[in-house]
Amino acid sequence: MKARYKYRCYPNLIQQIQLAKLFGCCGLVWNHALAHCIQEFKANQKKPSNAELQKVFITLAKKTINRAWLPEVSNIPLQQSLQQFSCR
Predict the structure, then answer these.
(1) Which of 12, 17, 48, 87 could form a disulfide with 52 if both were Cys (CB 3.0 to 4.6 A apart)?
(2) Cα dist. 86→6, 13, 30, 35, 38 in Å?
């Protein structure tokens, strides 16, 4: 017999802000990588590798002035959002 549990969390205000930042950053990285992947595929018929996407949209993006807030969140969810990328 399999047990099933239901959980619900009630984050406080600080946790809500941190979660919103995290989800926003993951969405931003995903959307920019998707646009780049579509453009690359149309131009070269070549799909970019996961390492290339991480380099461009996480590592180099953190060093730009426009994305100075990106290091406020952990790298792991950002990398996972690109690992699950359907463009590979």
Answers:
(1) 48
(2) 30, 34, 10, 12, 11
Q: What is the pLDDT of residues 28-81, one digit of tens each?
A: 999 988 888 888 878 887 778 888 888 888 888 888 888 888 888 999 999 998
Helices within the chain (DSSP H only): 13-44, 50-54, 60-62, 75-83
* Residue 31 amino acid letter: N
Type of residue at 60? L
**Domain assignment present for 8:** no
Considering the entire predicted model, what is its pTM? 0.78
Domain-embedded: residue 33: yes
Instruction: Give the pair of three-digit tokens for residue 2.
Output: 């399999």
Tokens of 59: 């590592």
Q: Which of 82, 72, 84, 88 lies closest to 33 in space, CA to CA?
A: 82
Q: Which domain covers residue 50, as residue numbers?
A: 13-83
Q: Give the CA radius of gyration of the chain.
A: 16
